[in-house]
Specification:
CATH architecture of the largest domain in chain A: Up-down Bundle
CATH class of the largest domain in chain A: Mainly Alpha
Oligomer: heterodimer
Mean pLDDT of chain B: 82
Number of strands of chain A: 6
Mean pLDDT of chain A: 84
Low-confidence stretches of chain B: none
Shape of chain A: elongated
Number of helices of chain A: 14
Strand order of the largest sheet of chain B: 9-11-10-16-15
Distance between the termini of chain A: 31 Å
CATH architecture of the largest domain in chain B: Up-down Bundle
Number of strands of chain B: 19
Strand content of chain A: 5-15%
CATH superfamily of the largest domain in chain B: Multidrug efflux transporter AcrB transmembrane domain
Radius of gyration of chain B: 33 Å
Helix content of chain A: 55-70%
Largest sheet of chain A: 4 strands, antiparallel
CATH class of the largest domain in chain B: Mainly Alpha
Radius of gyration of chain A: 30 Å
Order of helices and strands of chain A: HHEHEEHEHHHEEHHHHHHH
């Protein structure tokens, strides 16, 4: 099957609408960032506390908000956010500020206390099952089981407890058991264990799935380091491309990649997505992807420069883009497929990651054609234009070597 | 050609076998296979659940302590030489401000002008690590030389890593990692990762409490068991003594119990330094030095007890027993050690007995096991869905040649996983990002080659020539895209940190694997198909 056989689209002739679209997107992104008073950084870069709590039903957002506001234990702003993803609709993220590293431990404790007093029924000294660790549960059950006459060797007890907690932690429970009877059919669980469990433990209607606390110092440093590393990496790529092609190709490729990153960041702001460490990983992926795409096209231009010496640069570039069109569409399409799968089924952890890539691959693919190539073209037209107005000497030189084809293109 | 093909096939098969072995060892059953896979491909905390702590070692404490100790020593030295002074001060350092370490200086005031040369003499002779500057005719400031200050900071962090590692061992975790975080000398952070522990409270307790190091008088021993020792003593221990077990030095070692004095002669607090060394007979020993106060007490004690035994007890376990051979004052040596390793270990125990400086928690993350399970579940579902879609499209679009691409892609993934296993790396989310980009570029390499072959076929070339040309023409494009990315990864690795580095490492491994699979392996498969069929006019592509 071949879809793009001998195509002959005039890509570079249609560059302006795309360049304008790019500019519009970039400006919109910047405007959105400005209007929102800066980028929305995740906890990795901003510092603070973030607790992901899963409830057994739809979480009572208002109740959580008022509970935290009324407790007076948490300083600063408290944000309570729910997820829209169907797989995680019973989960909320509770975020608090963290001004000083020294408040780290106290802050966590206060948040856990507020949740416990608001939502957990008084346990009467019972152990809360949904947050119990393996050791805690085993320790809690050991003696009562013996007293109840359920004979169990220690390894057997450990195995049963591990089995129960594994069951609790796998989907669809995902950490939250709402009724002890769910456990009754597990291997090794008998009536004696069930009744001891019910007698010693109770079930809170929520469980803390994740707690992240990042001191403000770490956050700022991480951000600077990540940005610096990326800039150095871009400079490194520029140098390599300049060495293998011509310097203007390196500049064009880096501008195109920079453009992709800017637009993606802008889209993050427009869609109110947070910039987290995961997003940085995604942006790095996108830089790599977009650069790859640009080099493939440049490579073909370089090759054609050697074969079609008489061809004007613009039509040569068009030919190159057309020749590689099938590969561009295939590669971009396939990568896009994978990323879309991640976006749809990947869950909240991969959500922002795949969002960045969905944006990035789209922008990264067209920027190779409509941003990187035109920059090289503009530059050559500009220098050629200057040569044309110069005296005969330049013209003589031109017949010698119609266009400077990169001499270093080793083969 | 035929031979060449056989050689290439051998290379590919051997690589495949080595990689598969790295991932699953030699499984004896299905369950064994799953278990080996899980053991070899270890998941990072973000996917598996666990606790991640970043602590900042308050190096300013250690620098201040060093200045305070020097002040005490200097006072004694000045007294001995009859040099008068008014006051000696060190500035206070603020908790949470490691940069305060650089401003610590010992200020000595009121040295009479007539004694200034005597004072200078003492300082330059006895305090070579300090720079002496005169503030005015009677006041001076002593500050650690920049290199020594840096050494002290680096050593403080190293000792803290050792100590914290020893303490975390008590949690009895199969895997844990305690490591210096960031560049030594400019950052003083320690990263503690505890997979499977979702409540950091216990770990923080252990890190926070002081590990107790004691050197105690040995009354009697060794005994083969606690009961045996008790029986010999008639069931009751003598006043002021206790039974302590020796730290086992290997699985086959039997139990060894010693009866030691309850109150130690000296404790870890008085230990200043300890190093492994060799004596004149090239036997391994551990040299240690004590603080002035501890040294004086230790001197008096050892003088009176030559010939007796001393036990080094760390966290209620004996790490070494030695005989007192002479009076030991501020420095001594522990002899009778079996090997270099043993003496180095003991040196480390002695040095890391107590934390050299306070710690501050800069970051704390605990990821519940259910979140990890969810992420993996969803990640696998999404990953498989994506991969199946890619495979389907490749097979439909490139037909038989698509099989090449799928095989190459599969081998690439296997090599990547094997690399994770052989390098004892852990798979984290940014690492998976690297893998996704690798797969993207692997697909791209295949597409590039196939499209080239199609172009060549279109110009009317023979199948064999088209395949050869397609590969050789795509080769430089693939080199350029891969080298560019490797260059960028090198920078990301050099200047990035943590997650960014994980991304870079995975990507580089993936790219190298990709050049092997997409070019070498894929070409070999093509050659196999085309071998001996020179007249072939059609290629399924």
């Amino acid at each position: 099957m071949e879809l793009f056989k001998n195509t002959n689209y005039d890509f570079l002739g249609k560059k302006w609408p795309f360049i304008i679209a790019s500019l519009v997107l970039t400006v919109a992104g910047f405007a959105s960032i400005l209007m929102q008073g800066g980028l929305k950084f995740g906890i990795d870069f901003k510092g603070g506390t973030l607790m992901t709590v899963k409830f057994s039903q739809k979480p009572p957002l208002e109740q959580i908000r008022t509970a935290f506001a009324r407790s007076g234990k948490i300083k600063g702003e408290v944000t309570v956010q729910s997820f829209t993803d169907p797989g995680t609709q019973n989960e909320v993220e509770i975020g608090t500020e963290l001004v000083d590293e020294r408040q780290l431990a106290a802050n966590r404790l206060s948040m856990e206390q507020v949740l416990a007093t608001t939502f957990a029924q008084p346990g009467n000294g019972k152990l809360e099952f949904n947050s119990a660790s393996k050791d805690a549960l085993a320790a809690r059950l050991r003696d009562p089981l013996a007293r109840a006459g359920v004979a169990m060797a220690e390894p057997q007890l450990q195995k049963v407890v591990a089995g129960i907690l594994d069951f609790r932690d796998t989907p669809p429970r995902s950490g939250l058991v709402t009724d002890f009877n769910q456990l009754s059919s597990l291997p090794g669980v008998n009536a004696g264990i069930m009744s001891t469990l019910k007698q010693e433990c109770y079930l809170a209607p929520y469980t803390v799935k994740e707690t992240q606390m990042v001191g403000p110092k770490v956050g700022a440093e991480l951000r600077n380091k990540a940005v610096l590393a990326t800039l150095y990496a871009l400079a490194g790529m520029l140098a390599y491309i300049a060495f293998r092609f011509e310097w203007i190709y390196g500049v064009a490729a880096v501008i195109a990649v920079f453009h992709d990153t800017l637009i993606t960041i802008g889209l993050f702001s427009i869609f109110h997505e947070e910039i987290s460490m995961t997003v940085i990983a995604a942006l790095l992926t996108l830089v790599g992807y977009s650069m790859n795409d640009t080099i493939v096209i440049f490579d073909r231009i370089r090759e054609n420069l050697k074969i079609m010496r008489r061809e004007p640069l613009e039509s040569l570039m068009n030919k190159s883009v057309n020749q590689t069109l099938s590969r561009t569409i295939m590669s971009a399409g396939l990568t896009f497929l994978t990323v879309v799968a991640l976006f749809i089924w990947g869950g909240p952890v991969l959500h922002t990651f795949s969002f960045a890539l969905v944006c990035g691959i789209t922008v990264g693919t067209y920027s190779s054609v409509f941003i990187a190539s035109p920059i090289v073209l503009f530059w050559h037209n500009y220098t050629d234009g200057r040569k044309r107005t110069a005296p005969v000497l330049a013209a003589a030189a031109r017949t010698d070597a119609p266009r400077k084809s990169p001499s270093k293109a080793a083969k | 050609m035929k031979n060449n093909l056989t050689a290439r096939t051998v290379v590919i098969v051997v690589t495949l076998l080595i990689c598969v072995f790295g991932i699953i060892d030699f499984p004896k059953s299905g369950a064994d296979l799953v278990k080996n896979f899980k053991d070899n491909i270890r998941l990072g905390l973000d996917l598996k659940g666990g606790t991640h702590l970043v602590l900042e070692i308050q190096v300013q404490d250690a620098v201040k302590a060093d200045a305070d100790q020097s002040a005490e020593r200097l006072k004694e030295d000045l007294k001995k030489q009859n040099v008068a002074w008014n006051s000696m001060d060190t500035p206070d350092v603020r908790p949470g401000h490691v940069e305060d370490a650089d401003i610590v200086a010992l200020t000595v005031k009121g040295i009479p002008a007539t004694q200034s040369s005597a004072f200078r003499g003492i300082v330059t002779e006895r305090y070579p690590t300090y720079i002496l500057t005169a503030l005015n005719s009677t006041d001076y400031s002593l500050k650690l030389k920049p290199t020594d200050l840096n050494d002290l900071k680096v050593d403080t962090v190293k000792r803290s890593v050792d100590t914290i590692g020893n303490r975390i061992d008590q949690l009895g975790l199969a895997e844990k990692s305690v490591q210096q975080y960031g560049k030594a000398g400019s950052k003083f952070e320690v990263l503690v990762q505890l997979p499977g522990v979702d409540d950091p409270a216990r770990a923080k307790e252990l890190i926070g409490t002081a590990a107790v190091l004691e050197i105690c008088d040995v009354k009697e021993g060794p005994f083969p068991s606690k009961e045996g020792a008790l029986a010999q003593k008639g069931g009751i221990l003598p006043m002021g003594t206790r039974l302590v077990r020796s730290k086992p030095r290997g699985a086959q070692d039997g139990e060894q119990w010693y009866l030691v004095a309850k109150t130690p002669v000296i404790t870890g607090r008085e230990m200043r330094n300890a190093r492994a060394g060799q004596d004149e007979f090239r036997k391994w020993e551990t040299n240690f030095s004590l603080s002035q106060d501890g040294g004086r007490r230790f001197g008096r004690y050892t003088e009176a007890n030559i010939g007796n035994k001393l036990a080094v007890v760390l966290d209620s376990q004996i790490v070494s027993v030695a005989t007192i051979q002479s009076k030991i004052e501020d420095s001594g040596r522990i002899t009778g050690l079996g090997s270099e390793e043993e003496s180095v270990d003991l040196g480390r125990y002695l040095r890391s007995g107590s934390l050299p400086a306070g710690v501050q928690y800069n970051e704390e993350r605990s990821i519940g096991p259910s979140l990890g399970a969810d992420s993996i579940h969803q990640g696998i579902v999404a990953g498989i869905a994506g991969l199946l879609a890619v495979i389907a499209v490749m097979l439909v679009y490139y037909k038989r040649s698509g099989v090449n691409a799928v095989l190459a892609l599969g081998l690439n993934t296997i090599i990547l996983l094997a690399a994770v296993s052989y390098f004892h790396a852990v798979l984290t989310l940014p690492g998976i990002a690297g893998i996704i980009l690798t797969i993207g570029m692997a697909v791209d390499s295949n597409v590039l080659i196939f499209e080239r072959i199609r172009e060549e076929l279109r110009t009317g070339k023979s199948v064999i020539a088209a395949v050869d040309n397609g590969f050789s023409k795509a080769w430089w494009t693939i080199v350029d895209t891969h080298v560019t990315t490797v260059v960028s990864c090198a920078f990301l690795f050099l200047f990035g940190e943590g997650p960014v580095r994980g991304f870079a490492v995975t990507l580089v491994i993936g790219l190298v694997a990709n050049i092997f699979t997409a070019v070498f392996v894929s070409k070999t498969i093509f050659d196999y198909e085309l071998a001996g069929r020179r007249q072939l006019t059609e290629l399924s592509i």
